[in-house]
From TrEMBL:
GO cellular component: plasma membrane
Transmembrane portions of the chain: 20-39, 59-78, 90-108, 114-135, 147-169, 181-199, 300-318, 324-344, 365-382, 388-408
Native source species: Ensifer adhaerens
Name used for this protein in its record: MFS transporter
Major subcellular location class: membrane
Pfam families, per database record: MFS_1
Species classification: Bacteria, Pseudomonadati, Pseudomonadota, Alphaproteobacteria, Hyphomicrobiales
């Protein structure tokens, strides 16, 4: 498949400086995308336990499973749609699908409504977040890829953390519903309007970049891109499995941590603080790790980051005091900041511009499938052996995934 013919304005140039206005707009929009997930990080598992009186951890985490599966599938098709429909259209569709989500959570008479809301949220995130990543990579070109991804993920996950803290604070004073969820309504309206009115498509930037490169004897069918990204290319395989495990432990922490901390006697506000520290450190750290990977390379940051995450999970599971849990959250955030932008940049490095959007969509399919696998496996382990056992198990798996990347992948940033 080739990109549709587009008239290329002579003024189209690659680079952050040359495209700072659109880049900044997309940063703001991705902050709203991240905020939509942040409204759920603290309060939704507690809604399941406290309002709907669900006893099974696996059943409570079912909302994350629905989110993760649908987001993974949306990621899988988002790259194909971006090449055929255009990036902006996919972004706008993502926001339109996400508009009902906060209203459904506010009005939910039972847990099935929350699960249904997360089906829509997963679809929305798969389209909207994917397009903010792809469009920023399109705008800056190959030289600033790590910086672009780092800034994008910074905006998104800083918003996740701040919103998790804000909703925890509001819930401690006004209850779990509806006041904390009103924040999501504001995010959804702002993100939709900005995407419709101000965002411009970036496919012409892709054509400018591809025009300066030799055409590879490379796959163009979706099936070939899927197989190459998933299994056949060692660098892309290593990134895909690391991304899956990274979001596996994130899905576990999303569903398990609020319940785990509640059993240890923490109130909602302090739980909100712990749930905020992790994504805030994750988000802010990417401003450093993204551009650092442009200079030092991706591999060392990815391997080290997976191992730091594993340490944070083990400290959280085995520590018995708030200070240890805070340290665990800091390490988990720092490790994820080392990994997250570097994996996206590594996949971009190893993909030709003409099929990069599809390769990123396949990588993000495997990565976000980790949400569902992590929530399901952690819920089942917790129901059988307890919360600590679930967290330790995922920590060990995270360490092993970093080791697989160290063994399988080469350095993809040849300019470092």
């Amino acid at each position: 498949m080739t990109l549709p013919a587009i008239r290329e304005p002579s003024s189209v140039k690659l680079g952050l400086k040359e495209n700072w206005q659109q880049f900044s707009l997309l940063l703001l929009i991705n902050a709203f995308v991240g905020g939509m997930v942040g409204i759920e990080r603290t309060v939704v598992p507690l809604i399941g336990a406290n309002e709907f009186h669900i006893q099974s951890t696996a059943l409570i985490t079912s909302f994350i499973i629905s989110f993760g599966v649908v987001k993974a599938l949306a990621n899988l098709v988002s790259g194909q749609l971006a090449d055929s429909w255009g990036r902006k259209r996919v972004l706008v569709v993502g926001w339109l699908v996400g508009l009902p989500v906060p209203f459904m959570i506010v009005a939910a008479p039972n847990w099935e409504w929350v699960i249904a809301a997360n089906v829509l949220l997963g679809l929305s995130q798969g389209f909207a977040w994917s397009m903010t990543v792809v469009m920023k990579v399109d705008l800056v070109g190959p030289k600033g890829r790590g910086l672009a991804v780092g800034l994008n993920e910074f905006a998104g996950y800083l918003a996740v953390g701040l919103t998790a803290f804000l909703t925890g604070y509001l819930a401690s004073r006004y209850g779990l519903r509806p006041v904390p969820i009103y924040v999501g309504i504001a995010y959804a309206l702002a993100g939709t309007l900005l995407s419709i009115l101000l965002v411009r498509d970036t496919r012409q930037h892709v054509r400018v970049e591809a025009g300066g490169m030799s055409k590879e004897a490379s796959p163009f069918s979706f099936r070939e891109v899927f197989m190459l990204t998933s299994f056949k290319n060692r660098n892309l395989f290593a990134a895909s499995q690391a991304g899956l495990v990274n979001n596996l432990n994130d899905g576990m922490s999303w569903g398990i941590f609020p319940l785990f901390f509640t059993t240890l006697g923490l109130g909602i506000e302090r739980i909100g603080l712990l749930k905020a520290v992790y994504p805030i450190v994750w988000g802010v750290g990417q401003v450093v790790t993204g551009p650092l990977s442009d200079r030092w390379g991706r591999k060392g940051l990815i391997v080290g980051g997976m191992w730091v995450q594993a340490a944070g999970l083990l400290i959280t599971a085995l520590g018995g005091q708030f200070a240890w849990w805070l340290l665990g959250s800091l390490l988990l955030g720092a490790g994820t900041a080392m990994v997250y932008p570097c994996l996206i940049a590594a996949v971009s490095d190893a993909s030709h511009p003409t099929w990069r959007a599809r390769s990123l969509s396949v990588y993000r399919f495997w990565r976000d499938l980790g949400y569902a696998i992590g929530a399901l496996s952690a819920g089942l382990i917790a129901d059988r052996f307890g919360f600590s056992a679930a967290i330790v198990s995922i920590g060990i798996l995270t360490f092993l995934s970093g080791t697989v990347y160290w063994w399988a992948a080469e350095e993809t940033n040849k300019s470092s």
